[in-house]
Amino acid sequence: MTFARETDHGTPPALSTGKTVTLTIDGQSVTLPEGTSIMRAASLTGGSIPKLCATDSLESFGSCRLCLVEVEGRAGYPASCTTPVADGMVVRTQTDRLKQLRRGVMELYISDHPLDCLTCAANGDCELQDQAGAVGLRDVRYGYDGATNMGQLKDQSNPYFDFDPSKCIVCSRCVRACEEVQGTFALTIEGKGFDSKVSASQDDSFLGSECVSCGACVQACPTASLIEKKVVETGTPDRAVVTTCAYCGVGCTFRAEMRGEELVRMVPWKEGKANRGHSCVKGRFAWGYARHRDRILNPMIRASVSEPWREVSWGEAIAHTASEFRRIQAKYGTRSIGGITSSRCTNEETFLVQKLIRQGFGNNNVDTCARVCHSPTGYGLSKTFGTSAGTQDFDSVMKADVILVIGANPTDGHPVFASRMKKRLRQGAKLIVIDPRRTDLVKSPHVQAEHHLPLRPGTNVAMLTALAHVVVTEKLYDEAFIRARCDWDEFQDWADFVSEPARSPEAIEPLTGVRADEVRAAARLYATGGNGAIYYGLGVTEHSQGSSTVMAIANLAMATGNVGREGVGVNPLRGQNNVQGACDMGSFPHEFSGYRHVSDDATRGLFERAWGVRLDPEPGLRIPNMLDAATDGRFKGIFIQGEDILQSDPNTHHVAAGLAAMECVVVQDLFLNETANYAHIFLPGSTFLEKDGTFTNAERRIQMVRKVMAPLNGYADWEIVQLVANAMGLNWTYDHPSQIMDEIAALTPTFAGVNYDRLEAEGSLQWPANEAAPAGTPTMHIDGFVRGKGKFVVTGYVPTDEKTGPRFPLLLTTGRILSQYNVGAQTRRTGNTAWHPEDRLEIHPSDAENRGLKDGDWVTLRSRAGETTLRALITERVAPGVVYTTFHHPETQANVITTDFSDWATNCPEYKVTAVQVSASNGPSEWQQDYAAQARNSRRIAPLEAAE
Amino acid sequence: MSDDIEVMSTTGRLIYMAHQIALNLATMGEEGAVTALTDHLTSFWDPRMKEQIIAIARDEPDRLSPLVAAAVARMAQGRAAPHPDEDQFNSVNEVGHCDAG
Amino acid sequence: MEEFIGAWTARHGKSRDRLLPLLHAIQEEAGYVDDAIVPAIAQALNLSRADVHGVITFYHDFRRAAPGRHVVKLCRAESCQARGGAAIEEAAARRLGVPMGETRVDGQLSLEPVYCLGLCAIGPNALVDGRPVARVDAAALERIAAEVAA
Questions:
Q1: Taking CB atoms and an 8 Å limit, are C50 and A200 in contact across chains?
Q2: Cβ of B90 and A362 within 8 Å?
């Protein structure tokens, strides 16, 4: 693909009314949907009307007066961007009079704009420049001696883009993008008339303002006023490759705009069906880690973790890996080794890692980081609906009337989807938030939840059952839906259970701490407010009742008939870029790709015939069970691709002990992560920019990842897995990831219709995509649940054993923040640290006062599992008795605190509830000091010896 | 109280897990819960965890509740057919016997 | 001031369209709308700080700093200019010791522009602490100076 700007039709498509109108533009008759602007109509028919303040990502504004046209029979010269087409209209877009008017307007703009085009960073990529050319401006009669806005100071505070007011034409595109697209409202036009100026918040620096650095303003700017620093530094791109972001589960597609092998910028792709042309600070800007000096590019091995690393050739590293695994199996048995697939890697890579384990290791000891995030989603939605995935596409939210957000913080975790949700809320949809914290969705500019139910961490099941109690006892359920789509007897059992007085909002108020009348009102709103859509996150799953909570959510949706059409549904917000895909690809120890149990003879037979080996019919070990088995001396070797379990998994001491007990830990990663401190073999990984493949996002959308530069480390990750497999004697012969996808499609019914040719042609596909659903499946369970009848599961509330007491009186819950991502391995190595340089402990003012703490004080955070220190942030976002922190920084190691309690059904860790104490502190804990020393020691790389 | 819970041994954790699952299935009634727990252990526990819990049921029956003991017994019965010797799969000295590609 | 905003929104509502009336009420109460109070206004009406800042700076009538104890406004619109307003403006700035658009260092008075008071036939016109003064000339300036000295 060579470089061409994306077409801009000036105004967005008209809202569909089904009607069309026919008009004449410059002598050409055209028929278009009612409500289309003249500007868009002209553009769609191959014309182009000059414009500055219009762009098709924003509603028309009509301020620049450059797009004037003549309409027969109408006086004056209407702006084409704000004038809709009408039947029989005759429009002229190019006349002498219009030329004169447009030139006059442009002359005024240019009279207050520097003429430094040749040295301007946007030279060749500037709409003002283009339009000045288009209108034929040759001279500015006013001169440059009068007052101008030139020579103002640049704001360079944002790490990724500059704001130069001198080059601003005050078209308001940035302000409107911030409002309409992002929904943050961080920008405004300050003053009026000649003094008008774009202002971030109250004339603050961009960094110090409400700006969240999503980049929408930079993308919207028609001049060099808002421009990426990287473009200033590098120059404009010369080619563009469409690819998929490797951060969260939203799965934004971007144009990677390149100059040669250098990535100049990532620009959200307007055709992207997940992001619809929007982006966040991570995907848009935080990709610099790909070339960070910390990246490890050569394979390394060592005999013990106390030794420094020794760089070796790929050949030696791969042979050593294979021989170590075979040695261990010979000594300790086939089941003594296993592996972890990565939700950051592609479907194809994940598929290969689990294949390596099942086919090559000969066991099912494969797991993935979904274990610690959405495994309860897999369990709960499979039980109730019949498959482990969200029911909707993201577009569906635009048809929701009531949005119920439970245990999710989308403005931080899934920001691009949050912007869509906020747009829908501004259109009038109602919002209910169930969350211990007062998240931004509860109240932020232009968004306010109808009901916030700030429950005590750990009481989700009680809360959801109380909502169900109201729905059932007040007869707000959808009987027709239930009779048609679910098992009526199961519904009645469930209805009897939830109707018991002990499950009423009044009865559980002491448990949840939420007022019963508020719970009742929320239940009524969800059940009766039109299309009800549930979105949930890790605040649902990461509990000892995670799976029960997921089933309770599914029950609620079925009872109210909110499944099986647009605007409704049950939607897990997936954490990582490809966590949906990793699960789909058979990363769990008990199932093959497509969620088929390993004990199922037919499925196993299919794989056995394809792979030419007998496969183990017994489920393998989950990650925590692998670590247990390791401390018991029965699990000795592990292959970990792209995951940092030491930092991300609960109870760090337990993880460390398990890893330390193994004889061969192989880590494949971009960086020497925390887990690598316990590794014996390090295989350098490749970034998403360096390989081909696919990711599957939270809406089951399979999208292409395209190689934009050669892997710095020499191989894409799938090639490395193939090298290991072949060293173990497996004779794999993949030349390209498309062949891996063909194998996946052949072995996985839900993927049967997926191949690279179709993905290239159609941009993306939502599984199931097969004979039954040739075009893929945007909305699931339309004509019936995947399992047949929807299943109501009685979900008893079993409180966690993690309880507060005199020693640990506070509840810790953990989460993340917009600018950082997961363990921070990527984002900590980018400019994003400007926003979140350290993890902080959020604590309520009253709890802080009781402990004599001031904002910013160092505190010790202690649980029965361990202790760490960090600085306090005093805020009313958390309720009294609850504290909160993020886990992005290894210096903090928040998971030293979390315990090994986990979801009863899936062992998903209970990150969201830990009983803790907080006290004043002077500095790092003993563990932190020891760990820092050990990490330093463990990261040593021996200098290369001179060749003999 | 959590103050008293110490970090568990791996056997202790296995027993804890079995009882935690049982507790969450208790709403299904005794027979339903035993069936569901049996199914859960069969479907999700790896062979050695299964053997470990069977051994506990045999050697230290007091550590299992009646419900868990019943499910473990039923699960063990289901495994009565001699379960495949683990080395039957891709035995370690038999590399390269596969012809997949 | 937070208390004032709280009491005001309790009486008049806190929907976003309450912004202009609230800004007027604050200016009435405090004499100006301090930048420091903008976050509280934004919070109260669920607006962004940028939203509020944009509105305050758009309308010249909203002051962002405390005015002097007395406020003298001189009309700068076309009719008053035609009747010698520009010269009077210069003289007023000299006589009152404060440039147009500013507040005197001692905080005694502010001199502000205004655009048409509707008394075009009898200009140049001024508004002294809200009271219209017509046909402003050197003598009138002296009277105004004396008045605002108190």
A1: yes
A2: yes
